[in-house]
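pinning this so it doesn't scroll away 📌
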Amino acid sequence: MLSRYLLFIACFVLGVIALQQQASLPAWWWAVSSAGAALLLAQIRYFKFQWLLHYFFIALLAISLGFAWAQWRAELRMAQRIPMSLVGQTLWVEGYISDLPQDSRFGPRFVLTPEQPIANGWQPQRIQVNANLKHGQFSAGERLRLQLKLKPIHGAVNPAGFDLESWFLQQNIAAVGSAKSVERLNEFANVAWLVRIRAALRQRIVRALPDAPYQGVIVALTIGDQGGIPKAQWQRFAQTGITHLISISGLHITLLAAFSASAVLFVWRRIPQLAQRFAAQRAALIAGVLAALVYSLLAGMAVPTQRTVLMLLVAALCLWRAKPMAKSAIWAGALMAVVVFDPFAVLSVGFWLSFMVVGYLIWAGSNRIGDLKQWQLWVGTQWAATIASMPILLVVFGQFPLVSPLANAVAIPVVSMLVTPLALLGVLEPSGTLLHWAERLFAGVDWLLQWCLSLPMIDLQINTPSMSMLPLAMLGIALLLLPRGVPARWLGWVMLLPLFFTPKIVIPENVFVAQVLDVGQGLSVLVQTRNHALLFDTGHVANGERVLLPVLRQAGIHALDKLILSHNDADHIGAAPILLGQEGGRAFPIQQIMHSLPPLQPLLATTVTQRVCQAGQTWQWDGVQFSMLWLQPEYSARDDNAKSCVLRIHNAQHSLLIPADIGRLEEGELVAAGLLPTDIVIAPHHGSKTASSELLIQTLQPQYAVFSVGFMNHFRHPHPDVVSRYAAAGSSLLRTDQMGAIRFTVGEQIEVKQQRVIAPRYWYNATTPALTGETPQ
């Protein structure tokens, strides 16, 4: 019975995962026909291996049901996306702020729930609104009438890094709006009572800890709002592997539920009148679930807290039955409940980390032989949690924090058992003393984290393994967590070896690979030869953690030979401080910086070797020639754009030109200096009408013209006249806003790959090329 139960749940989840990997939402006939086939198989009798057929029937039926359920939910959610007819329009929208407003570098940002249809019957559940400072501050639950310019959901798509469109799907946000004008309705929405309570608690903590360095952490631990944590602190938490603690995590909710249940059980048993009317164990179960629910409501019932509450509900129901039940069955039941409630949860790395770690802890505990001392139990638990999370972290991020076991060994008990309870009690205690104690205790934890980061070899960085290696690695961990002395336990290490010895893709001699990364309205180009790597520009500041570092790790690059910073514009060099370690994190190893920056630019305050771009500079890597074509030393540049570094890369057959943001005058100078025809050109200044002159295009005669532009950018790049000129010259037009990152492999032939084609997903289809202009040729 247990085997059939576990098989059904595993296959149902597999069906949900299969749907979330689809490039487009398929027709209903697939799932319906599969379920029908499964039901027909169930009718077969007198078959020699009927038991095998029975299990096959269960598996096929469960996969079909999971696939169909996820498809139905996906269709409902995608149907809320903004209609094409409303894209780019400015409309009046009336609604209320349904989440805690956040501050961004561009101004306030919040989630708005419309209270009535906006236009043509369209009424989404949630819209993300970007306002600016002139609109003042916003309050949770506040009712507003706004004039919004509406845009569809769109995010950068690269070989690695954060998938913003997937995140919007998980959060059920249907559109993005830019506030043009705001009318406050001087009242609060009644249904927003919970978010108003959360906002009041946040304000209470901010007043009690006005200048405390870890004020943001205390807010995150009490109400789940992580927006006030500085970037430098987040980087430390990530590098030491304790980010799971800096929120209302499953561990905190579970501990609070256990404490509440234990307290009620202790009191209930000592009051005969209560114990005679209702069993103390059941009263404790109710108290634990209620405590978890209240704490989760404080966190705004975010997706991770929803998972934890559902897991606790399943466990409580099983205990309520007062019948023996396998821990694996409880774990599987919780997994099923979460996936049914939220089939989009499987898109989250946190979902897999939490369930896999808990699952392996259950596995390790059930296989334990004999009694262990407390310290042995604690060490064993840390070992199991560490090794259980390792494969997922390596496959997803390409690195694993080696100091994580040490950091977590101290941080888990201190944060979960001291800091969090003090912070929760401090919200109710009027003097603010407990909040101050909680903040100072966490300061001690962060001191330990900083000490951990001073140790050598704080993390393991490898070539990012393929997702296909994960099942074998997970089986290997299951073997390693068996008791000592079990035969063939050592095979677990063998199964883990492929994770650490993933071969790096070898680029042949005389070949170079250039990836024009999707960095929005900006530029960043990663160029690799057989043994070298170069990054030309970095895009704006948000691309550092979300794009550049993940892409570099995914490409197996652990050091850059050159970082070229073309000119002093934020959309070209904004993320450079992340690479140089000027934002509080570790610096990425860089051998040399080439630039055209002014002498007092803060980026130059680094020990990395520096060289100013000048025409005539050349070098050769692995049979590939690199030539700097601009800036001429005697040229009097009009502005920063005119001072851009211009790089030409060529092998014996083909060439690539990266002209950054030069304009027509500089283009004319390059042509006069003998600019050669080029197969691939990154359109100067993102396709602005002030660049890509007829003279330049006729001289280059490019086979490919690439526009590195932001989706529906307010500059309206690329300009239609520029697009027409390249098209008239016979160039194939490629755009990062439509195609994601664009990868060129340049050898005897030129191979082109587009990231949105390499790894398509159904939620990308809501943003079609028609929204951004002409369909690429």
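📌 and the second one:
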Amino acid sequence: MRIGLATALLASAAWVAPAWAQTAEPPAQPDAQADSKQDSGIAEIVVTAQKRAENVQNVPIAISAFESVTLQERAVNSVAQLSAIAPNVNLDAGTPFSGSPAVLSAYIRAIGSDDFAFNIDPGVGLYLDGVYLARTVGANQDLMDVARVEVLKGPQGTLFGRNTIGGAISIVTRDPGKEFGFQGDVTTGSYNLLSARGSVDIPITDALGAILSFGVKSRDGYLKRVPYPDQRANNTPSYTAFSSAGYGNGEREGGNDNWNLRGKLKWSNGGPVSLTLSGDYSRDKGTSANKLLGTAETVPGNFAGTANLPGTAFDPTGTTGFNFAGLYNFCIGATSGQIAARNAQALCGTSGTQFNPRFQIPSYAGVNVDGNPANDRLPWDSRYLIADPDRSYATGNSFSDLKNWGFSGVVDFDLSDAVSLKSITAYRQLDWAAGLDADGSPLNFLQLSFTMDQWQFSQEVQLLGKALDNKLNYVLGGYYFKEAGNLHDYVTFAEGQVQVDGPNRLETANYAAFGQIDYRPTEWLGLTVGGRYTNEKKRFEGGQQELNGFNYKLFGCSDANGNITPNGPFPLAPVTCQTGLSYPDPTNPVRVYVPGTNRKSFSNFSPKFGVQLHPTDAVMLYGSWSRGYKTGGWTTRLTNPQGNVAPDFNEEQATTVEVGVKSTLLDRKLQLNAAAFTTDYQDIQLNIQIGTSPTIANAGDARIRGFELEAIVAPVRGLTVNASVGYIDATYTRVSPAAAAVGGPSPFQAGTIVGAPLPKTPNWKINLSPRYETRIGNGGSLIFLADWSHATSAWNDTQRTYILRRNASDLVNASIAYQEPGGHWTLGVGATNLTDNRYLTSGGANIADGTFFGTYNRPREWYARFGFKF
């Protein structure tokens, strides 16, 4: 009866991803017992998703868990590469205009964040050995010498905290071995790939052991820059003529020059106390490969129209003037009389102001009609588009330099046989500079660069215990987190018509108390109740400036030589220009952000309730109700003055109901897991493009529904097949009038409207991954692997820009490896993206600047790997 009930529920339920596992067969010594049950089934994977070690099949959470062997064999070297094999998970290496694949864009079940700004927190929490990594910069961790990676789906606020509203990704590194050993691999491949990784286990005493790991990787970029075949390209000022976080470029984009170090020291003498000290350092110089995808220079705008307000170059109707791209083309192609007729002498004049003389650029007014072909300029239009996704006419910045390091100490103290105390203390720091040429042309139409410096300190204490003859398990804890740092933006639009210089500083202090109780009063019933209370305080100071003083020039408060007159008369009112234009800082006429320190406080209680049914020892059915939240902040990246108000946004919240089943059947030859969920997602922090500024606001609510399936089958010795299916229906149920106004349907965009799907969320994701291992005559093994991953199309941005839409994709990877009889070394060859299926992983639309840009996934690549273990 119990088996019949379980089978019926399995047949009617939706499915969720369990752990990826090989069969339990070892790399097989000749004397292995072939008929052993333990060696012929699907291996167990132990996870710590509930702060204690458990078989993943006993945890009532939708989890995809990947062990080190799986990651190694399937050439998964970074967090982003997990995306193809985890249903309802979208992980991209890089965000729009970040310029670095070390930045992680993470979405789980349609909730996440596609940005790297300091004022925006991620929606998916990333943890390294239990330590929260607060920034998306550096979150695309190299998976060097890890024991496993756990991907937890749905709000994880109870045990993992704020900013896990979509889920959590937990990376667990390997502990030192009890015996001296050395293992590693050397890999070569496409684009002059050379990678070497290694780790050494060092037993110092019976109680003290250490592990030291290292990795280096270099690879040429896959996108090649080619010269634009027109001598007028030489008349464009160099990108070094504008302010930037740094200057650097090369002939290729999308390459790597990275190295990593990690060390761990563990002391345990078998007594009640154990201590683990860890440290890691990475240097990442990988760059994103950016492409120009489209232009929009003919879109009408507010600048230099024929219906301007008196004494200005501003057309309030936005119908007779130009956008920034059109204004540039007008300036280079119009006579002085035509420019004067539209009051555009200052707009077409010197770029920059007297307040930044180092970066003033001479006027380009009328250069194409002055009878001197030697100073002619290239216009901005579609001539720079190249169909080949791996070619670009870019000449500007392309660099990224990330230094990311940290250390932690973990103390485990067994107070009794039933109660233990755990302390995790950690400090981390990152320093980053990056720049990219987003316009993909020889012009300076969208040049971006950034610096970020951040440090964080965290302290977590956990009290873990068992009671009532082990029927009750509990976790109680406290958490403290502090971070501070700055992000400095530098952006040049349309040959300097807008020049953003944006220093920003943020501080956060967070306190939390949490607890969870799991009670199993009978063999067939389990109950869960938990919650987390969080209190958080944030301080922010924005210093955004627009160095060209464009608004002064637009409203007749400057001359053609670039000199602005903030205290001069405003043509539309009896006030000064600075007052009339709402510039907020009397001491800095070009500052657009409100001076002073802004403060916000947040408090939240995130509860969880669950119930589990165990009809058999091999089957668990569960249901849960949980809440999570993501903290708020302030909007930056502004190019227009904000008066006396610093624009902010509040926290977002998600409430999820989930039902699922986990099962291991047919004498551990078949593992079937399933879950269905529905989420009420409120006050979504949407990234809305307003003019040239990507701004954040609580602009919508959504309903998210879906299911997940993963099966593992080991029908015969040596063969394991992993399969997964994920489906999501995620649509807006409310969109604010402001978001709908700026993100409504247009010839370029489908719009942010009620009923529209959320970004970065394909409806379907399917994966099929067979692995077959067979012995050969000398006692060695051949291992054959293949991966097929399919994802339906998805939108890459909130406004659903047509040209940025991610096409449906089918990725095929395959490899074959030989393992020598003793298991000491392997030699393998493989290829990723065998069919060379290309699609956009990220992108941006800046219609005011007339520019659409994006990044494609990596092309087909081969590799050869030699691995060893002694």
